[in-house]
Queue: 2 jobs
Job 1
Amino acid sequence: MVWVVAMTLLSARRLSKYFGGLRAVDEVNFELETGEIRAIIGPNGAGKTTFVSLLCGRLEATDGSIIFENQDITGLPAFKRARQGIAYTFQITSIYSKLSVRENVAIAAQNATDKSRDAAYRVQDALTRSGIPELADEIAGSLAYGHQRVLEVAMGLAMSPKLLILDEPTQGLSDMEIEQFCELVSDINNTATVLLIEHNMHVVMKLAQRITVMDRGRVLAEGLPEEIRRNDAVQAAYLGS
Amino acid sequence: MSSEQAKSIFLHAGVLAGLFLLQFFLPEYHHLSVTRIMLLAVFAMGFNLLFGYTGLLSLGHAMFFAAGMYGAGLSAYHLGWSVPLSFMVGIACGVVLSLAIGLIALRTTGVAFMIVTLMFSQVAYLTIVYFTTYTRGDEGLVMPESARQFVLFGQQLSLTHPGTRYNLALMLLAIVMASVWLLVRGDFGRSLIAIRENEARTKMLGYNTFLIKLKVLVVSGTISASSGAGYALMFAYIGSSFATIQYSIDPLLYTLLGGAGTVLGPFLGTALMFYLIDITSEYTSAYLLVAGIVLVILVLFFPRGLLGAVRNRWFGWLP
């Protein structure tokens, strides 16, 4: 898909989340353009997961605002944001482990943003695009870990999201699985904007068009991959100065 | 998929047809027992919708049963309203009460939800006892003669006639069974199971889980109330003992025994439990001990209940 004019899909203004005295996310300004793959990186405890949790509504912001498709969604509950097209996949695999893979995806497909095709088609499409159609009748909890991660993404895909947030999707995957995963994310990017929290720098450099670096609840740097690679402040945060 | 659906329809229709035919063979005593079982099974089916499918354990379902019972019984007794009208009042009481309780109790989950429903149910019981002028509390009320006859579709029906009672109970069971069957198979049923399995995830998939839980609680409470209303009118008696904790625990036992999260489980569980107590009480006054032991064995060896075990082992299509 060709994006003629870059349009802002989502922006956050002075977005903050405090847990008591801890400023987990501290006045973050953030813009995401329609169609891009953005990676958020940063050391442990930088506030990455908290930040995306604010975006998808899993956590309520202490202060600041979130605009999605020109609409203020700061006060919307998570389920409404999901219906508007923000899909979130959990860092810790959170599937319906007692149900079949097909049921898992069907539950996700039920509230899809795009309902132009019927539910059965959307389920099959998500399974096929994720490369797990042959596992459809397996019980989700009995799948190999890598496949469970893929199922997470398939569920996100079945929602036909405008923005797919992936929280450390490649954690615990083998090198081969990671390669397949990168292909899957590239494919998803044909229809959705992707926001990725990732520790694996190989994956980040391969996929991300822009990178946002967070540290101690703030945005430390933002830019193209090669700019980030050369940034002194980023090196300091990662390697210690 | 569609052959599974056909099998499932065939099974449920078969059970109902079997119950219809059974009335011509049953001796008088068992005829009455089966009538009671069918009504109590409706109660358990309502409970199961909440517990078995949605994973919400209410320890206060007696209040919904009692709402139906007293709504129907009091309007028939004090206002002299006709049987169908009183029955509708009973159901309306169920809707109102379950909606009110839902709005409050569903703010809690897990153990807190159990305690809150238990507490409200106790309030309902004490309310009945408190207004003893109208309810005669523990002693209860016997329905007047005027509430024993009614006209339905141009037919004069008498509730003193066992056949009438049997077939009315069967009708209610059939309606509720069909409704539950339709409900749990569709998108709504899928969202219930999703909430039972992982509510946090379900929210993130775009479901308004509070609203879904409220809806299912209202349906569950209303079905339970329809059972209570039917019980009051058919057996011509209402009393506060029907609002006690025992009537909150019974549907849980029926459901666990028959299989939580199956359409037929509550019916099977009700029938087995009813006869288990019926038969053992002939031999010993410690019949509840026997019932308890059976339940312990069941939970140990068939944690998903009888039909749950059947579904796991042989028939995956069982709804």
Job 2
Amino acid sequence: MQANPMYQLQGDNLSCIRDDRELFVGLDFAVKSGQVLLLEGNNGSGKTTLLRIVCGFREPDSGAVSWCGENIPQSQYYSDMAYVGHLDGIKKELTVLENLKLSLALSQSGKLSIAQALEKVQLAGYDDALIQTLSAGQKRRLSLARLLITHNILWILDEPFTSLDKQGIILIESLMAEHCDGGGMIVMTSHHDVNLQGVDIQRIRLS
Amino acid sequence: MAMFDAFAAIVRRDLVLAMRRRSEIANPVLFFILVITLFPLGIGAQPKLLQAIAPGIIWVSALLATMLSLDSLFRSDFDDGSLEQILLSPYPTSILVLGKITAHWLTTGLPLLIVAPLLAVFLGMPNQSLSILLLTLFLGTPILSLIGAVGVALTVGLRRGGMILSLLVLPLYVPVLIFASNAVEMASTGLPVTAQINILISMLLMALVLAPWPTAAALKMSINS
């Protein structure tokens, strides 16, 4: 994909108050193509809440999130983003292939075919395996494979390294670096150290 | 067309899921059959009475069977995060939701339609009203699925939404029950039923057009909890 510096995700003056507790107030950020925004903070500091606001699941108590200058509840944003959250979003009664085919049908097709993506996340040969027979780490790899088969510029990842082994973490980091090199951008939370060489990482510490 | 593909993919996925969880689709039909077969036993050997209340029995059972199956409409998608992915799709949520409702009707409404003739004979319903019974079920059960979807979407985020769901949905089911069972009753005495059927058709069309939007909006609210 040609690097396109036009893409920008911006949060202006975001606030979130939950049960009389201010999670964050007046938060600003801007992420451009090729950059990573890493949200840090203790448990309960509002990282996931912020990600859900960025996804549009939750309305901020003040402020707005915009994509390329337009507020996000508009269709273009949703065809440019992909989200992997705490929940895998995969159906355990379906096979690997059936799950990915649905993701593909719900979105536009991206850079890689399903077979190529499975190869990349080292799940090749598991096409017809039922999800309930996979391990937690394999499920996580599968939900990350979804990022590769659909068209997207922005990845929103909530703790993407959960239940992955060391090799899996390295693999996902390389995919993330590749995505940023290709003009993509990532907003993510992580308790692990993120090791991305040559990628511009912005950090926001929520407390 | 991409949007239609997405709709079809949702329907297909839910049908495959239903096939893999067979006991779940068998439940409403089994309930339907059980309730209807219990009535003659409870009432005793009074064929006239049974015949008179047959339309009501069948329709009330169909209504309760549908209600019983409603919770499964969004529950598993809500629990495993598939719902988040559906809401983040660039395609209109209402279309995707309509796909889920279609699959729900195919797995719960349609089986009722298939077993209904047998049960109607069992209750001694006259032949001339059988076709009208099937027609009302064909028009009425999709309305139940569509209205039910709005209710489930509102309550899926609650831990014990079952009671609220019944309270929300039942009053909206009553008009369908009244017109449908009345049509079957009239048909058994040989009276014309065009009016009731037309009302059912208009209710179906209205539900088809109006239900997916609030369902989509309610799901967005539920996912926020």
